[in-house]
């Protein structure tokens, strides 16, 4: 994930927005068969994406932050 984010950071901010939006969409309720460790890893990846792509799109960053918080609550 870190290598992927490093490559994304070298791209225009519109590419960052696509990655942020992608993770927002993917942070739906996890499948029932996912174990808690996998759920936590996915949440941590979302947090890493948010941290590494901060400054690219405030609106999407705020939406992703909310989705991460909601994902924790599930």
**Terminal-residue CA separation:** 24 Å
Residue runs with pLDDT of under 50 for 5 or more positions: none
Strand residue content: under 5%
User: What is the number of beta strands?
Assistant: 0
The computed structural class is: mainly alpha
Order of helices and strands: HHHH
Number of helical elements: 4
Q: Approximately how much helix is present in the residues?
A: over 70%
Largest sheet composition: none
Number of folding domains?
1
Overall morphology: globular
Task: Supply Rg.
Answer: 12 Å
Can you walk me through this structure?
By secondary structure, this protein is mostly helical. It has helices spanning 2-9, 13-26, 36-52, 58-73. Helix 2 packs parallel to helix 4 and helix 3 runs antiparallel to helix 4 (58-73). The longest helix has 17 residues, at 36-52. The chain is globular. The two termini are 24 Å apart.
Labels describing this entry:
74 residues; 4 helices; mainly alpha
Q: What can be said about this structure in brief?
A:
With 74 residues, the chain is mostly helical.
Write the layout of secondary structure elements.
Layout (H helix, E strand, L loop, with lengths): L1 H8 L3 H14 L9 H17 L5 H16 L1
